Amino acid sequence: MKKANQFCLVLTAAFFFALLATPMSAQVATKQATLKPTSTTTTTTTTTTPTSVDVVADEMKMLLDKWEKSYNTEKSAELGKLVAAQITILAPDGATKVMSKNEFVGNLENDFVVDGTTEIDLAITSVVIQPDGKAMVVGTYTERELDAKGNVVARRSGDFIDVVAKEAGAWKLEAITVVPN
Predict the structure, then answer these.
(1) Quick check: 62 and 69 in contact, CB under 8 A?
(2) pLDDT one-digit tens code per residue, 86-122
(3) Which residues lie below 8 Å from residue 155, measured CB to CB, with a gap of 6+?
């Protein structure tokens, strides 16, 4: 009986080691930084082949700044320009939905009409360049629902994980995971 317990303990330790070692070995580079969005618009030319984590982190900040500005001004067509041809949404309950860019944009337009004015603030906490050239962007969000007078009537916050890939030379959101607090 004692050998069986020791064997189970060794298997459990090996399992947890495998869970931790695999993602760590897959990470090429990580930049930890808090990048707050700015209210000014910056026009830059991005390279087609990012050479460093710093370059990709700056490009991710610009992408999320555009997302935040377009969302807060309810410009679903502009948001559509930032999304890949297909996007995967992973809901907090674990449900996964794959939809086309057009379906995604249509859902945003519906949300803007039904939900009224909602503003978001996004902050990046880390950017990980994956071996396949995609970037995983991890951050936090704060969402505020406003009434007709601009008063905050509800507030939500949490974390997000986005997977972003180059499509025709531009970064596009491929997957979004939102984890509310």
Answers:
(1) no
(2) 999 998 888 999 999 999 988 888 877 676 688 999 9
(3) 142, 143, 144, 145
Q: Say what the pLDDT of residue 35 is.
A: 43
CA atoms within 13 A on the CB side of 166: 13
Structure-token pair, residue 28 = 């090429």
HSE at residue 79, side-chain half, CA atoms within 13 A, is: 21
Q: Please give the structure tokens belonging to residue 36.
A: 């707050």
Is 164 within 8 Å of 174 (Cβ atoms)?
yes
A 10 A CB-CB count for 59 gives 20
For residues 60 and 57, give the distance between their C-alpha atoms in angstroms, rounded to a whole number.
5
**Which residues are CB-contacts of 169 (< 8 A; sequence separation ≥ 6)?**
46, 48
pLDDT at 132: 93
Tally Cβ neighbours within 10 Å of residue 9.
10
Backbone φ and ψ for 157, nearest 5 degrees, come out as: -150, 170
- Look-up: residue for tokens 């997977």? 163
Please, are residues 103 and 135 in contact by the beta-carbon 8 Å criterion? no
Six token digits for residue 100: 């086309």
Low-confidence ranges of the chain (pLDDT < 50): 1-48, 50
101 and 85 Cβ atoms separated by less than 8 Å: yes
DSSP string, 47-58: PSS--SHHHHHH
